[in-house]
Write a structure and sequence with these properties.
This protein has about 400 residues and is an alpha/beta fold. Helices cover about 40% and strands about 30% of the residues. The protein has 2 domains: about 5-75 and about 100-180 and about 275-350, FAD/NAD(P)-binding domain, CATH 3.50.50; about 185-270 and about 360-390, D-Amino Acid Oxidase, Chain A, domain 2 (2-Layer Sandwich), CATH 3.30.9.10. The strands form 4 sheets. It has an 8-stranded mixed sheet. The structure holds 8-demethyl-8-dimethylamino-flavin-adenine-dinucleotide and P-hydroxybenzoic acid. The site of P-hydroxybenzoic acid has 10 residues, from strand 16.
Length: about 400
């Protein structure tokens, strides 16, 4: 069994989009980092997740030098469709909020970030086990982990906890300091990926008597569809035929008639959760992305909120190394949480509007319809929705 010690300025735990983006942005300012990832690169790149990028994230990917393929292959969406029963209307992001979003898969963002890290000679250690953060509340933190049979140590100035909801970083903050807020939704999303053309050139957020559905896409030949499902369902319970049948019953009839179906190439179920931990900083440890907060996917905010955390931390660390000021890192938690809670509110609101809840009364259903009618016909309501969907400023 060997032992090794490395040294860096910022130790980053987690090689998902938050950790990689932070590493690459810090590199542009000459700040050194090491990324520790529990899984293999192939495993990380097999996860199918987000599809909608706000302008803020696009700008950061540009700054990181990782936006060429996104600009070549991503699709700019100036609006989205919302349907209930056979009623369908459009929210025009350009007209209502003066901005657009880009449809480009998180898998591709992550692939581009790995390529950039590799080209820059960035250090990423895969397959790490038993990561422990030591002395985060002191002035000289260090990390230990195991890799194969070796015990390894990293000495660093700061630790970025980018290790997702199930990571170790958040758990390192003592319970006496940490406060957690959570809402579990009584349903999940069953998602499939299929090599078929999308049913519409824009996303359709659909609600119906049978529950929520979302028609999304990755490109002209690759579609991503979701339906609200029971938490007790497993993907194996759903044949492709049953999935398509159920999706068709939840979208307007003319969309259902033109839907092209085919075999699924991925099928998975995600539970829906709202979660925030406060504070997002403890001493020299900073939490970013899903390590600190989770949103239900309905508002497409998870990856985008991770990106705004990375932005605030990147600004703070850059100011620390360049100008020798701690102002940016001292205000990190408050700034990040300010934006996080607004994304939580939007995701919770949009989820509540579009899903069927097991204990919903007839009155509750009327409220949902009234709110959908208001959104369909009221410009101010559309402005609020569009501003949140394209992303609040940071
Ligand atoms: P990730 O992606 O979970 O990455 C964390 C990484 O840390 C590693 N890790 C560890 N590494 C070392 N040591 C440990 N002890 C470790 N523990 C964990 C993990 O292996 C992993 O590689 O978190 P990150 O980087 O903060 O990124 C967050 C996003 O992945 C997430 O918010 C989004 O995917 C959420 N999301 C969406 N976000 C959007 O902005 N727009 C969308 O359209 C959108 N759609 C979605 C989504 C999430 C979904 N699921 C599956 C929950 C759709 C779905 C279905
Ligand atoms: C996706 O394409 O995976 C996607 C798009 C929008 C959402 C959630 C997921 O709100």
């Amino acid at each position: 069994m060997g032992k090794s010690t490395m040294k860096t300025q910022v130790a980053i735990i987690g090689g998902g989009p938050s950790g990689l983006l932070l590493a690459q942005l810090l590199h542009t300012k000459g700040i050194d980092s090491i990324v520790l990832e529990r899984k293999t690169k192939d495993y990380v790149l097999r996860r199918i997740r987000a599809g909608v990028l706000e302008q803020g994230l696009v700008k950061m990917l540009e700054e990181a030098g990782c936006a060429d393929r996104l600009h070549a292959e991503g699709f700019v969406h100036d609006g989205t469709q919302v349907s209930y029963g056979d009623e369908i209307f459009r929210i025009d992001f350009k007209a209502r909020a003066g901005a657009s979003v880009v449809v480009y898969g998180q898998t591709e963002v992550t692939r581009d970030l790995y390529a950039a890290r590799e080209a820059a000679g960035g250090r990423i250690v895969f397959d790490v086990e038993d990561v422990v953060i030591h002395d985060a509340d002191g002035t000289v933190p260090h990390i230990t982990y195991r890799k194969g049979g070796d015990v390894c140590r990293i000495d660093c100035d700061f630790v970025a906890g980018c290790d997702g909801f199930h990571g170790v970083s958040r758990q390192t903050i003592p319970l006496a300091v940490r406060r957690e807020y959570e809402k579990i939704y009584p349903f999940g999303w069953l998602g499939i990926l299929s090599e078929t053309p999308p049913v519409h050139h824009e996303l359709i957020y659909a609600t119906s008597k049978r529950g929520f559905a979302l028609c999304s896409m990755r490109n002209d030949h690759l579609s991503r569809y979701y339906i609200q499902c029971s938490l007790s369902d497993s993907p194996g319970d759903w044949t492709d035929a049953a999935f398509w049948e159920e999706l068709k019953r939840r979208i307007p009839v003319d969309m259902a008639d033109s839907l092209v179906t085919g075999p699924s190439i991925e099928k998975s179920i995600a539970p829906l959760r709202s979660f925030v931990t406060e504070p997002m900083r403890w001493g020299r440890l900073f939490l970013c992305g899903d390590a600190a907060h989770i949103v239900p996917p309905t508002g497409a905010k998870g990856l985008n909120t991770a990106a705004s955390d990375v932005y605030y931390l990147y600004q703070g660390l850059t100011a620390f190394y360049r100008d020798n000021t701690t102002d940016g890192i001292d205000t990190y938690s408050a700034k990040a949480l300010g934006r996080v809670w607004k994304a939580e509110r939007f995701s919770w609101w949009f989820s509540s509007l579009l899903h069927r809840y097991p204990d919903q009364s007839e009155f509750d259903l009327k409220m949902q319809i009234a709110e959908l009618e208001f959104l369909r016909t009221n410009e101010a309501a559309q402005v609020a929705m569009a501003q949140n969907y394209v992303g609040l400023p940071y």
